[in-house]
Design a protein that fits this description.
- By secondary structure, the chain is an alpha/beta fold.
- Helix content is 41%, strand content 17%.
- Strands 1-2-4-3-5-6-7-8 form an eight-stranded mixed sheet, sandwiched between helices.
Length: 294
């Protein structure tokens, strides 16, 4: 493994790179960092792939835009720029949590850049509002998104007592997992960097923006058909996004290149860290199957 720097305009993004071969680009979520995929790297490299895992926009000082714009279309632009910078005509895109949302939007925006998409812990976006209405318990699970709209109070609460709130989210979202203290320490270190907390919370604050041109662009992109072969994996014990959200029979109609849904027992929101062998098996099978897609 080596550390590299990716660019988009004036912004710089630290990334981990390992292996040689077709590109697999992995996007982390909240509250996390690029070590989220440490247990996927050996499996992907041994299978003959080049793995690159960047820090998302805002998760370090040098990737924080001066205008504070964390609308998701900007992250899609980041991904497109990274793939081009890495010299790949196409990539296999893997995303967890916010990384999964960015993955779906990238697939809808620039399918020509992707061999395949694998999403972790986030169901397909097109019919997600319908799925939530059919599973009202999800509104309770998503309480924190409303809490983050309380600027000032939520900023203070997230950081208080050595980021206790962050630690509690991990335990609530993956209730059956004995989370390594080194993992929590790494995440806390990331959030302690200047500007990271504000950036991460702004993702959620911008998601409630329904007036700006950026938000309208994102809404349009979200509704587009997905023309990239997509594997969506969830954990049955996910305390953040209910695994029942994947039940909607309407999901598949939006995926012209195919949608496969897998749900894993004994795993919560951070399923790729909780059950890495099972996730790696599904992930490798999918990207190998679609590695020669045109």
């Amino acid at each position: 493994m080596q550390n590299i720097t990716l660019k988009n305009g004036r912004l710089s993004f630290s990334a981990i790179e390992a292996g040689e071969g077709p590109l697999v680009l992995c996007l982390h979520g909240f509250p996390d960092n690029y070590h989220s995929y440490d247990q996927q790297i050996p499996a992907l490299v041994n299978a003959g792939f080049r793995v690159v895992i960047p820090m998302l926009r805002g998760y370090e000082p040098q990737s924080q835009p001066s205008n504070g714009d964390y609308h998701l279309n900007k992250m899609v632009e980041d991904v497109q720029g990274w793939i081009n910078q890495l010299g790949a005509k196409k990539a296999h895109l893997v995303g967890h949590d916010w990384g999964a949302v960015i993955g779906y939007l990238t697939a809808n925006t620039a399918p020509e850049l992707l061999h395949s998409l694998t999403t972790l812990a986030i169901p397909p976006l097109q019919d997600l509002p319908v799925a939530i209405r059919n599973n009202p318990k999800q509104l309770l699970l998503s309480w924190y998104t409303l809490f983050f709209q309380l600027r000032g109070l939520s900023d203070w609460w997230v950081e208080r007592s050595d980021w206790k709130f962050i630690e509690q989210l991990w335990h609530r979202w993956s209730p059956t997992w004995k989370i390594p203290q080194t993992t929590l320490a790494s995440v806390k270190h990331t959030f302690a960097q200047p500007g990271v907390k504000k950036a991460a919370l702004t993702y959620y604050r911008h998601s409630f923006d329904n007036r700006s041109a950026q938000s309208k662009e994102i809404a349009t992109t979200r509704a587009l058909p997905t023309n990239t072969p997509t594997l969506a994996i969830a954990g049955w014990e996910d305390g953040c996004m209910s695994a029942k959200l994947y039940d909607s029979p309407l999901h598949a109609r939006h995926f012209s290149a195919g949608l496969k849904i897998e749900r894993i027992n004994g795993a919560g929101h951070f399923l790729h860290q909780e059950q890495p062998e099972l996730v790696n098996e599904l992930l490798l099978s999918w990207i190998i199957q679609h590695n020669n897609s045109t």
